[in-house]
Amino acid sequence: MAKKRKTKINKWLKKTFNKWKRTWKKNWKKTWNNIWKTIRGKKKRRSKKRAEEQRIYYLKIFVSVSAVLLFIFFLHSVFNRDSNSIRRPKIHKDYLTVNPYSRSGISLKKVNGIVVHYVANPGSSARENRDYFEGLKDTHETKASSHYIVGLKGEIYQCIPEDEIAYASNSRNKDTISIECCHPDSDGKFSEKTYESLLQLTAWLCDRYSLDEKDVIRHYDVTGKLCPVYYVKHEDAWEDFRKDVKARLQ
Length: 250
Ligand SMILES: [Zn+2]
Description:
By secondary structure, this protein is α/β, with parallel strands linked by helices. It folds into 2 domains: 1-81; 92-249, 3-Layer(aba) Sandwich (Lysozyme-like), CATH 3.40.80. Helices cover 54% and strands 9% of the residues. A hairpin with a 5-residue loop joins β3 (148-150) and β4. The termini are far apart. The structure holds zinc ion (ZN). Zinc ion is lined by residues 117, 219, 227.
């Protein structure tokens, strides 16, 4: 009796197994594809999530860096603001090589004035005059230089740092900043653009060194040399310039 039941169970198991095997064989491809699709879907979702996290991470870095830069810019503008908010003119810094003929490197301890000059070479550019000063280290022709040169188009070159002396104003080299100006003609009159840049540069310097228009002088006022010639021959034009400096300082 028991043996009969066992055989019956075995038969049923075999039958079931075969049925399952048949179904599996029939559907294994479909099943595998389903499993693979599920895995891939998960993978896709996961990589999508990772990409999203990465985007947020980079965004956070970008925002942080921008905030830091803005803060530095803010501090810089607060601490470097000119007291009287006179706009700094555009200046091309092109310092001369230190040499005994045009840039001695001797320090300028205190600035008590601004001296205006003319280059006495009609039509020459600021750049050419700057290069002439630079060339003196080789030619040894003379000792000459200037802190600033204002060109025919109003461009400004700086040849010497403000804390070093220039060879421009004789006995006043030791306590003044010098500005050479280009001019189109031999009468030495400055072009409108040169005049405007000279005015802005002078006012900006006066403001920074707590000077006023009376501290702005001509080379002529130091040595009697006809420099800047137009403003020696036209005293009224020189006084007008000083008045313009005063107006810009107010
Ligand atoms: Zn001069």
